[in-house]
């Protein structure tokens, strides 16, 4: 808050008082006198000098701002306070005018009194009477001087003989100085008092807001406690009490710290009101619903979805959520094990998000028709970039699949391909994906990711190790998959094979970064490099995803690339953004023997530009439907003939899509607890088998 800006925060150095010293050609030091010191190293002497110059300018600006804030501290005063201050000054001015009027009256009557006394003294009176009259005259003069001094009017009080009266001289000096000191002190400290008053008022407002939030949270907790009685009956090992769903027992929380929980676990229930109009027409699904009741409703919805693909889903409810109520129970845990309610999710599984890579499958269809392997590589590169276009607005987290969960997408009639995904490992999370097209290509990938929380942002990075947890893959036997990795990269690599030419391409994904995790609006960036290799011909394509920078003049989300033959000669240059489009420029051979001299000319040859890919526009009102694309809107629609393990049949995901988030949270916890018990059972069986040899 503004009130805390004047205090020193841990780990910061105030530029106004910072000491900036150069250590050597590349190193320099920033210190605040001993409490905090930063040793910084630049990549070169030029960069070091740029940093030092920029910091010195910033320091000068900070010092200037500090001086200006001291001189004009009342800039932050609100309009109401200024009005009150003006009213007070107006009243004080009126009082000063009243005092001045009184002084004039006192001076007038004092002068008349002195004149009368002087006339009386001139008369012939007895000697003792003359001394008495002089004494009265001196006191009248003293009274006049005192009155003048009280309003900062310095008068010279002289006695009847022309000399200064000692007491009158003292009062004449003391009273004006006291008034001036008071005025100077009031002017000096008035601004500081005003700022302190404003800070106190701001703190009072913040306290009122905090109390209001606490009252709302208390109300939510009461509703959660009342609703706990309708949550699912406890399964063996869960504690046997519905109260444990809101306040997990020690045994439940200990599971959170084990390595068998990845991304799951929602120990808190966040009650949300039902969305009218989004309830199902069948039996009311709650936490106690069984798989049979879900299947009945699933079959009821299937009839209309096979004929025509849906173009909308129920709008996302506008539910507020206190992030602190989530984070306070997760201090010290790994980010992947932080329990998250469905409020942070979107109604799609990670397997369905993986299938969204096929949204621009026509790029692979066109690549399959290319006779040149280099041109084919350009379309494969565009397909690689297009898989990130759905992430620009999609900041919500997909549901983490359960072990053995599958997702099948059959688009043979409409688009000529069929896709199958399966969650083959729970910790670490890994998914296998296989897609075949009748247009002459096959795509397969096995993705395992890891995440690192770095304070302000979260980095999601793909890994290349083989999942250690045993799990089946419906599209291909596990033994054959292991055998196929002797010649090509292991898990974490994407494979694309074209049937007619036999060209086999491989590549990996880049790092995804989610910014403003704690404070601010979430936004996503992609950064890193991708190397696409044709293992048959040796052709390569190097793609670079430029990370976003506030200080860069380049277009945001920029992607550049070069398509090279086995000798390293560049034939095509790729340029675009991962959220909009990708263009291809054919390199014109210049005077040199290789393409190095001709690369700059590729951007100038506008006539050689070919638009490889352009992002499809989002559906109408997509902002109310989690920013889903047209394909994403159809992925969770019920379909006939899907497996019992299909993601479309997940009850928590279906409840969330229909806006019933409180029931979705309860069902999510039930499924995750069931998975924990299943894993413990498998580990116990493995331990017994090991003992038996």
Automatic annotation (TrEMBL):
One of its GO terms (biological process) is intermembrane lipid transfer. One of its GO terms (cellular component) is cytosol. InterPro entries: OSBP_sf, Oxysterol-bd, Oxysterol-bd_CS, PH-like_dom_sf, PH_domain. Residues 646-693 have a biased composition (Basic and acidic residues). It holds the Pfam family Oxysterol_BP. GO terms for molecular function: sterol binding. Keywords: Coiled coil, Lipid transport, Lipid-binding, Phosphoprotein, Transport. Residues 197-224 form a coiled coil. Residues 463-488, 637-693 are annotated as: Disordered. Residues 1-60 form the PH domain. Belongs to the OSBP family. PANTHER family: OXYSTEROL-BINDING PROTEIN 1, OXYSTEROL-BINDING PROTEIN-RELATED. This is Oxysterol-binding protein. It comes from Mohoua ochrocephala.
């Amino acid at each position: 808050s503004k009130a805390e800006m004047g205090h020193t925060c841990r780990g910061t150095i105030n530029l106004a008082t910072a000491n900036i010293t150069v250590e050597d050609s590349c190193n320099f030091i920033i210190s605040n006198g001993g409490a905090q010191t930063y040793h910084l190293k630049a990549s070169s002497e030029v960069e070091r000098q740029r940093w030092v110059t920029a910091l010195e300018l910033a320091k000068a600006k900070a010092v200037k701002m500090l001086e200006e804030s001291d001189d004009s501290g009342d800039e932050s005063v609100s309009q109401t306070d200024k009005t009150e201050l003006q009213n007070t000054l107006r009243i004080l001015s009126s009082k000063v005018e009243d005092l001045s009027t009184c002084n004039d009256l006192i001076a007038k009557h004092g002068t008349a009194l002195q004149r009368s006394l002087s006339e009386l003294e001139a008369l012939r009176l007895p000697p003792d009477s003359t001394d008495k009259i002089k004494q009265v005259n001196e006191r009248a003069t003293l009274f006049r001087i005192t009155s003048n001094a009280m309003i900062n009017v310095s008068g010279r009080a002289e006695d009847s003989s022309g000399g200064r009266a000692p007491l009158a001289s003292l009062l004449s000096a003391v009273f004006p100085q006291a008034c001036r000191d008071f005025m100077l002190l009031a002017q000096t400290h008035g601004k500081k008092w005003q700022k302190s008053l404003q800070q106190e008022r701001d703190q009072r407002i913040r306290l009122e807001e905090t109390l209001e939030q606490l009252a709302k949270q208390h109300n939510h907790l009461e509703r959660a406690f009342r609703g706990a009685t309708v949550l699912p009956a406890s399964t063996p090992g869960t504690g046997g009490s519905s109260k444990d769903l809101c306040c997990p027992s020690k045994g439940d929380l200990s599971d959170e710290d084990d390595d068998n929980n990845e991304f799951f676990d929602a120990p808190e229930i966040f009650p949300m009101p039902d969305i009218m109009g989004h309830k199902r027409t069948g039996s009311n699904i709650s936490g106690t619903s069984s798989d049979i009741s879900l299947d009945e409703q699933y079959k009821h919805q299937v009839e209309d979805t096979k004929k025509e693909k849906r173009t909308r889903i129920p709008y996302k409810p506008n539910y507020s959520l206190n992030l602190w109520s989530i984070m306070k129970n997760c201090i010290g845990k790994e980010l992947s094990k932080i329990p998250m309610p469905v409020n942070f999710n979107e109604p799609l599984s990670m397997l369905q998000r993986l299938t969204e890579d096929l949204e621009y499958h026509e790029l692979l269809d066109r690549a399959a028709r290319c006779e040149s392997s280099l041109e084919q590589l350009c379309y494969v590169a565009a397909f690689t970039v297009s898989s990130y276009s759905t992430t620009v607005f999609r900041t919500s987290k997909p549901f983490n699949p359960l072990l053995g969960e599958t997702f099948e997408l059959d688009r043979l009639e409409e688009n000529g391909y069929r896709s199958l995904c399966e969650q083959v490992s729970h910790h670490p999370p890994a998914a296998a994906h296989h897609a075949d097209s009748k247009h002459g290509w096959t795509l397969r990938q096995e993705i395992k990711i890891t995440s690192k929380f770095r304070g302000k942002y979260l980095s999601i990075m793909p890994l290349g190790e083989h999942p250690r947890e045993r799990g089946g893959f419906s599209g291909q036997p596990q033994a054959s998959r292991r055998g196929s990795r002797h010649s090509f990269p292991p898990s974490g690599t994407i494979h694309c094979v074209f049937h007619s030419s036999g060209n086999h391409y491989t590549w990996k994904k880049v790092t995804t970064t989610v910014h403003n995790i704690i404070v601010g609006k979430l936004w996503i960036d992609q950064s890193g490099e991708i190397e696409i290799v044709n293992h048959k011909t040796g052709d390569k394509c190097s793609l670079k995803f430029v990370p976003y920078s506030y200080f860069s003049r380049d277009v945001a989300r920029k992607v550049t690339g070069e398509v090279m033959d086995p000798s390293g000669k560049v034939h095509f240059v790729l340029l675009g953004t991962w959220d909009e489009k990708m263009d291809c420029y054919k390199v014109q051979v210049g005077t040199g023997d290789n393409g190095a001299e001709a690369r700059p000319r590729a951007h100038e040859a506008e006539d050689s530009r070919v638009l490889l890919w352009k992002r499809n526009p989002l559906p109408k009102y997509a902002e109310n439907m989690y920013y889903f694309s047209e394909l994403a809107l159809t992925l969770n629609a019920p379909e006939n003939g899907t497996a019992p393990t299909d993601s479309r049949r997940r009850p928590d995901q279906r409840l969330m899509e229909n806006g019933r988030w409180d029931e979705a949270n309860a069902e999510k916890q039930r499924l995750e607890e069931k998975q924990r018990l299943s894993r413990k059972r498998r580990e116990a069986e493995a331990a017994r088998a090991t003992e038996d040899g």
